[in-house]
């Protein structure tokens, strides 16, 4: 069995650009396939479930092609699928299986649909019954009420009323609604029983409207598709980031400090799962939201607290709450989650079993789960994932309990989020921030510490130096903050095996010139330049960890760093070191001039209004005046081994 070991982590912070939403991706694909005209779908999710839909559409005669990155162009069939006989294998993709069943039942062809064994345990009888009542000829090839299915050509009674049960899965209603315009005769769909997961129906109606079919809704009981309704491509559509996937990162921020920001969903999202953020807020997390982003931080000075929540409106993201509950004071009770039992796995049973492995007290019922919090986590637990992407992603959060966690079969995340663990590791990878004045030797020390620990290394000063060099070369004034910020935003710089490249040419030596040294400290005083370089610096935070050196690593760029060191030496000692370096290189300099330059630079770096050079209150002071490089490195490595989660250091 494959597995992934997550190191214990204490803090999570950073920004994650979300992959496209699965729900939106597969709906857009089907609507574009049935519509008249060509649809340009931007930012489609690249994942197994979407591949299943794409493969099925190709087999059914839909012409689509991949453009740049995750952009797709789909030429619609302007009605039912052109291919009238096909065998489709749909893996475990419910968002492909259910809507395709309905659309194919109304396509007057002969089709077989099958999936992985688990797909054959997931009910589809309610949808098949509704379609049969309209005249569709559908047979269950295995167990009654479950896939695989065979669909044969049959005359469809259109224009009337059709009833579908709403308790098991909202996807049945979604499937019917999306398929019914194929009849051209209109219809009214009535929902029997309670409709679960209503926000997913909102998504369906929203997207259908964008493709020109406005469904009239009477509460959540009846939905009328007007006669003559036809799908027409709206041209270009953008897939929002996946709001369910956002839940893991936001929970990490709420549990372990933060801030964690997700980009791609926010206040303007049409996905119900953004309301997961409200649940976190109810637990005490600090949440901020913009139109297209959400940010989560831990409560100020207190712990998360347990909640009781009816989760009908956030069925998928609610799983994340069950794991966040481990970190909260009290017992969290999540109700109205019966649909968990018929998802990729029986999620209530799976969740309860794995939470108990970590040491939690869990109560489960037909449609609820209750999880006690403030856990002493059992270390080294191996979490089973049940071929369920959400189980794997949820339980990554357990490493924030300060224990190593093994995730079995981690590749199940490919269903919706193939690079989930890389992104998650980036948020929780420990950072060692080393700040200090010019020529203090922090660069040498930081690089050696990174090497010893096997961590990534960020020389943030080099970025400011590169901006200065690029400006000097382009003839841009070092006083023109706006022009400098533009350079910083698009800085064509790369770090490759100890070499620093600007515009593809080696600038390693050039950025160390006295002109660049003085220039960089001027450039660095502009807030817009600093802002333009912020995300670039944070992107260096990657597993297994990062050593970052500069002036504001601990104060601004990585305020949640696991270890902060303020590394300094007297100005005389620093001038002396620099003097010896230059003499060794055969350059003639005066030590007095060097000392004066250093003092000027110190003054400018310390006195500037934004991110001045300073020792943060929580940084440890390392005065290297009387130390060798080896001693300084040993000092930091020792601190790191004491202070970092144990497996982060070898
Ligand atoms: O560390 P260094 O000497 O290479 O840095 C060059 C200049 O960049 C320095 O004068 C101050 C500035 N700098 C900064 O303002 N913030 C950082 N994090 C790193 C460097």
Quick overview:
The chain has 650 residues and is an alpha/beta fold.
Please write out the topology.
Elements: E1 3-6, E2 12-17, H1 22-34, E3 38-42, H2 48-59, E4 63-66, E5 72-75, E6 85-89, H3 94-105, E7 110-114, H4 125-133, E8 137-140, E9 149-152, E10 161-165, H5 170-179, E11 187-192, H6 198-210, E12 216-218, E13 222-225, E14 236-238, H7 243-255, E15 257-263, H8 276-282, E16 286-290, E17 293-297, E18 304-305, E19 308-310, H9 318-324, E20 328-329, E21 331-335, H10 347-357, E22 362-364, E23 368-372, E24 381-383, H11 389-396, E25 405-408, H12 420-428, E26 431-435, H13 442-453, E27 456-459, H14 460-474, H15 481-489, E28 493-496, E29 499-502, E30 505-506, H16 514-523, H17 527-538, E31 546-550, H18 553-557, E32 563-568, H19 571-584, H20 591-607, E33 620-623, H21 629-643
Parallel strand pairs: 2-15, 3-14, 6-7, 10-11, 18-20, 19-21, 24-25, 26-31, 26-32, 27-31, 32-33
Antiparallel strand pairs: 1-25, 3-5, 4-5, 7-9, 8-9, 11-13, 12-13, 15-17, 16-17, 21-23, 22-23, 28-29, 29-30
Helix pairs in contact: 1-2, 1-3, 1-6, 2-3, 3-5, 4-5, 5-6, 13-21, 14-16, 15-17, 19-20
The CATH topology of the largest domain is given as: UDP-n-acetylglucosamine1-carboxyvinyl-transferase, Chain
CATH class of the largest domain: Alpha Beta
Give the number of DSSP strands. Answer: 33
Strand order of the largest sheet: 27-31-26-32-33
Bound molecules: 2'-deoxycytidine-5'-monophosphate
Distance N to C terminus: 25 Å
Figure out the total of helices: 21
Q: Mean pLDDT, nearest integer? A: 94
The value of Rg in angstroms is 29 Å
């Amino acid at each position: 069995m494959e597995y992934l070991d997550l190191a214990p982590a204490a803090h999570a912070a950073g920004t994650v650009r979300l992959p496209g939403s699965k729900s939106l991706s597969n709906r857009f694909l089907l609507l574009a396939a049935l519509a008249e005209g060509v649809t340009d779908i931007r930012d489609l999710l690249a994942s197994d479930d979407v591949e299943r839909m794409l493969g099925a559409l190709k087999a059914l005669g839909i012409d689509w092609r991949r453009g740049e990155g995750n952009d797709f162009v789909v030429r619609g069939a302007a009605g039912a699928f052109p291919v009238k006989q096909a065998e489709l294998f749909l893996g475990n993709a419910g968002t492909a299986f259910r809507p395709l069943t309905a659309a194919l039942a109304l396509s007057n062809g002969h089709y077989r649909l099958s999936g992985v064994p688990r797909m054959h345990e997931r009910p589809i009888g309610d949808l098949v019954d509704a379609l049969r009542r309209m005249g569709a000829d559908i047979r269950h090839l295995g167990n009654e009420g479950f896939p695989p299915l065979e669909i044969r050509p049959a005359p469809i009674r259109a224009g009337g009323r059709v009833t579908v049960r709403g308790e098991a899965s909202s996807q049945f209603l979604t499937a019917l609604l999306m398929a019914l315009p194929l009849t051209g005769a209109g219809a009214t769909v009535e929902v029997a029983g309670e409709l679960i997961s209503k926000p997913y129906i909102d998504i369906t109606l929203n997207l259908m409207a964008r493709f020109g079919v406005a469904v009239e809704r009477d509460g959540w009981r009846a939905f009328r598709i007007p006669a003559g309704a036809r799908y027409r491509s709206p041209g270009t559509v953008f897939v929002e980031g996946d709001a369910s996937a956002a839940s893991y990162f936001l929970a990490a921020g709420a549990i372990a400090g933060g801030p964690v920001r997700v980009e791609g969903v926010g206040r303007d999202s049409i996905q119900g799962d953004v309301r997961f953020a409200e649940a976190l807020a109810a637990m005490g997390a600090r949440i901020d939201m913009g139109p297209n982003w959400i940010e989560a931080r831990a409560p100020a000075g207190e712990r998360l607290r347990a909640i009781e929540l009816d989760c009908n409106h956030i069925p998928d993201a609610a799983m994340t709450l069950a794991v966040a509950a481990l970190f909260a004071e009290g017992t969290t009770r999540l109700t109205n989650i019966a649909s968990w039992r018929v998802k990729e796995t029986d999620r209530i049973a799976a969740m309860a079993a794995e939470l108990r492995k970590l040491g939690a007290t869990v109560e489960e019922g037909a449609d609820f789960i209750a999880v006690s919090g403030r856990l002493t986590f059992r270390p080294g637990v191996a979490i089973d994932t049940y071929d369920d992407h959400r189980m794997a992603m949820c339980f990554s959060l357990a490493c924030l309990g300060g224990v190593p966690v093994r995730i079995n079969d981690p590749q199940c995340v490919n269903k919706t989020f193939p690079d989930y663990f890389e992104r998650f590791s980036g948020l929780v990878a420990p950072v060692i921030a080393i700040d200090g004045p010019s020529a203090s030797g922090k660069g040498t020390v930081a690089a050696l510490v990174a090497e010893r620990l096997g961590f990534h290394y960020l020389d943030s000063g080099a970025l400011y130096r590169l901006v200065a060099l690029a400006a000097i070369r382009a003839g841009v004034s070092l006083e023109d903050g706006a022009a400098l910020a533009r350079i910083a935003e698009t800085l064509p710089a790369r770090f490759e095996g100890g070499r620093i490249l600007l515009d593809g040419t080696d600038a390693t030596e050039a950025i160390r010139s006295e002109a660049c040294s003085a220039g960089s400290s001027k450039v660095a005083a502009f807030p817009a330049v600093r802002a333009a370089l912020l995300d670039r610096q944070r992107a260096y935070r990657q597993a297994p960890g990062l050593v970052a050196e500069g002036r504001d690593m601990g104060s601004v760029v990585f305020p949640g760093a696991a270890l902060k060191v303020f590394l300094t030496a007297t100005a005389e000692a620093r001038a002396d070191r620099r003097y010896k370096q230059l003499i060794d290189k055969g350059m003639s300099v005066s030590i007095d001039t060097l000392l004066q330059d250093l003092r000027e630079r110190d003054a400018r770096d310390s006195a500037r209004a934004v991110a001045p050079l300073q020792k943060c209150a929580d940084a440890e002071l390392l005065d290297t005046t009387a130390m060798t490089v080896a001693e300084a490195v040993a000092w930091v490595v020792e601190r790191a081994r004491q202070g970092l989660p144990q497996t982060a250091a070898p």
